[in-house]
C-alpha cells in the first residue's frame, strides 16, 4: 500500500503532509490553502500544509496518513479502545497555529483545488 508515495513526482505534488481545515476555522485563524502550520498537542507536533476544504466540519481537522515525511502518527493519543486495542485516531485532540504563509516553491507544484466536489 502506498509505495508510489516515494516517487519524485509525488514529492513535488505534495512536498509536505497536509492538514484539512474547515473554511470557517481557516478564516478565523487567518489561514489559506498552502500556508504552513504546526499541529500540536501533548503527544507531539508536526509541520503541515493547510488545505482549506468544507469536507471537514468546523472545529475538526483531518491529517493525511502515509506521507513520505511522516509526522501525523506522532500526534495520536495514547488511548486505545479496550475491545479492539486500536488507537483513537479519529478522537485525538490537537491545536493548530500558523507558522508561515505560503511557500512559493510549494505553490508552483502542489494543487489546492477542491477535491470533494463532483460537478
UniProtKB/TrEMBL annotation:
<feature type="domain" description="Molybdopterin dinucleotide-binding">
    <location>
        <begin position="14"/>
        <end position="92"/>
    </location>
</feature>
<dbReference type="GO" id="GO:0022904">
    <property type="term" value="P:respiratory electron transport chain"/>
</dbReference>
<keyword id="KW-0479">Metal-binding</keyword>
<dbReference type="GO" id="GO:0003954">
    <property type="term" value="F:NADH dehydrogenase activity"/>
</dbReference>
<dbReference type="GO" id="GO:0043546">
    <property type="term" value="F:molybdopterin cofactor binding"/>
</dbReference>
<dbReference type="GO" id="GO:0051536">
    <property type="term" value="F:iron-sulfur cluster binding"/>
</dbReference>
<keyword id="KW-0408">Iron</keyword>
<dbReference type="GO" id="GO:0046872">
    <property type="term" value="F:metal ion binding"/>
</dbReference>
<dbReference type="GO" id="GO:0016020">
    <property type="term" value="C:membrane"/>
</dbReference>
<dbReference type="InterPro" id="IPR006657">
    <property type="entry name" value="MoPterin_dinucl-bd_dom"/>
</dbReference>
<keyword id="KW-0614">Plasmid</keyword>
<dbReference type="Pfam" id="PF01568">
    <property type="entry name" value="Molydop_binding"/>
</dbReference>
<dbReference type="InterPro" id="IPR050123">
    <property type="entry name" value="Prok_molybdopt-oxidoreductase"/>
</dbReference>
<keyword id="KW-0411">Iron-sulfur</keyword>
<protein>
    <recommendedName>
        <fullName>Molybdopterin dinucleotide-binding domain-containing protein</fullName>
    </recommendedName>
</protein>
<dbReference type="InterPro" id="IPR009010">
    <property type="entry name" value="Asp_de-COase-like_dom_sf"/>
</dbReference>
